[in-house]
């Protein structure tokens, strides 16, 4: 880690915002994040509320890298971006997709708690019906066991799948699903990379065909680049339901990776009803120009979280800073 800025300097410039979602995503109705401005740019500290301090400290390292060190050199100026469809009813699919401009790749959430495989199939079918040519990937967030994953992915593969993200929870189960499907559906690891104590364990176990990498949970853009290089697997860059400031760190990662074979999951600002940058970092014509993002003072004020939530985040920042 580079030398940390003084805590007071970080606290002094911190804003806490609450961004309402247009569609509920991973149970979240409004996304709370903290952002601050350092000499190198804006950084976002937005671990999900239930994450503990050890896990959240990595998100802080990423935010401080963006604010005080700046992002590494880029090798491209434009990155392809996928649309993201939460676990909505099929009838809602057209409205969700309408929020995205020119969609070539779609990621669809499946295996949501309380839903059935036929609901997943109906949602994936609705996307395929609207977008016959698009690449479709599904993300189960580890919601299936091995047997369920194998039968679900065999069934969903009739719609044509680019890959399946984290169909099962553990690395051993990922390996078992991958063997059972024998390459008919590619397997991507997300939680098994970003929430693992060893982000390289998946690659060593041969448990996935590709890795999903997110700048904040991995501790920053530079750390994510190292992980991809060491893993030796193709990588998909994705986001963590961030504001445009957080998305810009993902964009910096996508811009700096030597190879970028897949569209990036960086389009999630389109799922939000408010943002703190104008213009927002959303995909146009299926991708994004690489750029830096500056938070807008008026929007920061409009989206400001209540005082008790601001205090909660300031305490969280102090605790996580002490862990770096
Ligand atoms: O990859 C995408 O298309 C969007 C980002 C996305 O799906 C996620 C962001 C944040 C938390 C996760 O539940 C989720 C994911 O699992 O990939
Ligand atoms: Mg995922």
Automatic annotation (TrEMBL):
Active site positions:
109, 214
Q: Which residues are involved in binding Mg(2+)? A: 139, 165, 190
Extract one GO BP annotation from the record. menaquinone biosynthetic process
Q: Which reaction does it catalyse?
A: (1R,6R)-6-hydroxy-2-succinyl-cyclohexa-2,4-diene-1-carboxylate = 2-succinylbenzoate + H2O
Q: What is its EC number?
A: 4.2.1.113
Give the pathway annotation: Quinol/quinone metabolism; 1,4-dihydroxy-2-naphthoate biosynthesis; 1,4-dihydroxy-2-naphthoate from chorismate: step 4/7; Quinol/quinone metabolism; menaquinone biosynthesis
Q: Which GO terms describe its molecular function?
A: magnesium ion binding; O-succinylbenzoate synthase activity
SMART domains associated with the record: MR_MLE
* Family to which this protein belongs: Belongs to the mandelate racemase/muconate lactonizing enzyme family. MenC type 1 subfamily.
What PANTHER family does the entry give?
O-SUCCINYLBENZOATE SYNTHASE, O-SUCCINYLBENZOATE SYNTHASE-RELATED
For this entry, the protein name equals o-succinylbenzoate synthase
Q: Gene name, please?
A: menC
